[in-house]
Amino acid sequence: MKVFVSVGMGGVSTTLSNNEIDENGSAYIGAAAEMTREAIAACEGAMIGGATEIYVRDAHGSAKNIDPYAMPRYVKLIRGWSGDPRHMIDGIDSSFDACMFVGYHSGSFGRGNPLSQTIIEDVFYIKLNGSYASEFTLFSYLAAYYGVPTVFLSGDKMLCDEALKLGHPALVTVPVNEVLGGATTIIHPQDVCEAIKAGAEKAIKESVKNAVAALPDKYTVEICFKDHIKAKKASFYPEVSQIDSCTLLYQPPDMTDAMRFLLYALIL
Prior knowledge:
Strand order of the largest sheet: 3-2-1-4-7-8-9
Number of strands: 12
CATH architecture of the domain at 2-109 and 135-206: 3-Layer(aba) Sandwich
CATH class of the domain at 2-109 and 135-206: Alpha Beta
Largest sheet: 7 strands, mixed
Number of helices: 7
Order of helices and strands: EHHEEEEEHEHEEHEHEEH
Shape: globular
Radius of gyration: 17 Å
């Protein structure tokens, strides 16, 4: 079984502040180490569950956070950004049997994480078909576009609760912390890694190729920027409507085009 694992940093158990997720921050080294440990736990669980091939995508910041020397030798680690619209799951294709998400967090306009955002901090919110979208929403649906079922998620409790409503038939979730305002309640990181390992094992054992979320027939993507200048720049994407000074509306034909627009609007 071929498994793809996308790993973020904002939703690992100990992460609380920008000082931890910024590679120039004084607390970054500890957060990167925890990101690595939780990624390893997911890989170990997946292997016990029946994975035969595992690819890990470092999906935070520079995409050079996970310690390559700490990873199991059976893991293929994807580092850096190619510019592909698949972005946080860049490297996935229809050859994979399952997709897992580790260290993910609530999206912009959500209160589930002190670091709640969607892809970049400059966005007030992103909506997909009228509902607020997290990074997990977007990239798990993109995995479904390639026919790959999303089977595992670890992150803050609110994201895990919301993810179970998205229609992924085989999804196993492991909440690693619970947030109230700017405070986070966590369990011991070692217990978190054990829970991730057990959850990943369960997810891979129970996953089946046809357990793919049903995708909508039509798409509407809405982006509200915090800065009207960024909205103006992104409004030049073909067939995009600017509905107010900070908000853009786009109707892509499918999820790949939706992500192509988002990459253009948010990153380029």
